[in-house]
Amino acid sequence: MAKASDVKTGNILRFNGELVSVDEYIHRTPGNLRAFYQAKMRNVKTGKLVEYRFRTDEEVEIARVETNDYQYLYDEGDFFVVMDNVSFEQFNIPKSLFGSTARFLKEGMNVLVAFESDEPIMAQAPATVELEITYSEPAVKGDTSTNALKSATVETGVEIRVPLFINQGDKVKVDTRSGDYIERVK
């Protein structure tokens, strides 16, 4: 157990039986009252935001979280199988931890996974990925108005919107959080 004064922004705490990450942690000293810590914390599993005031001498449990890079190997039902790049140990990570970025994962890609006592609690795909276009509609001649886009399918099976000059076989960089086209890769 640690004191409330030991907590920093970014720590993972066990709060009311749930794991929460500390988004904001401010020390307040109001004029004629006792000092306290104002915390904004986000539940790791549900994403719900919680606000709480800690007394300066209050005890909190800081969870031991290990975050490492892992290599994504393959999809297995409701899980993604990842491998530790150092020990070559394999782990099953629930797809739900990746959220909407899971649809852009390609075999061999590096992902970030956080474990708390052998249980995966957070997973994150890279911010951008380079994918090959497997199908794109041909551009209509004369349709060159500003910012004209067409549909294209990338190698993971996701359909995205790309500029007219992108053709089948081209590699493109895609933002995994929004699914937007960023640029063509040479």
TrEMBL record:
Keyword Protein biosynthesis: yes
Entry-linked PROSITE patterns: EFP
UniProt-annotated location(s): Cytoplasm
Alphabetically ordered keywords of this record: Cytoplasm, Elongation factor, Protein biosynthesis
Gene3D superfamilies the UniProt entry points to: 2.30.30.30, Nucleic acid-binding proteins
Pfam families reported in the protein's UniProt record: EFP (PF01132), EFP_N (PF08207), Elong-fact-P_C (PF09285)
Annotated ranges, domain Translation elongation factor P/YeiP central: 67-121
Main location: cytoplasm
GO biological process: peptide biosynthetic process
Pathway: Protein biosynthesis; polypeptide chain elongation
Domain Elongation factor P C-terminal stretches: 129-184
GO MF annotation list: translation elongation factor activity
GO CC term (a single one): cytosol
Function: Involved in peptide bond synthesis. Stimulates efficient translation and peptide-bond synthesis on native or reconstituted 70S ribosomes in vitro. Probably functions indirectly by altering the affinity of the ribosome for aminoacyl-tRNA, thus increasing their reactivity as acceptors for peptidyl transferase.
PANTHER family: ELONGATION FACTOR P (PTHR30053), ELONGATION FACTOR P (EF-P) FAMILY PROTEIN (PTHR30053:SF12)
This protein's name: Elongation factor P
Species whose genome carries this gene: Olivibacter domesticus
Gene: efp
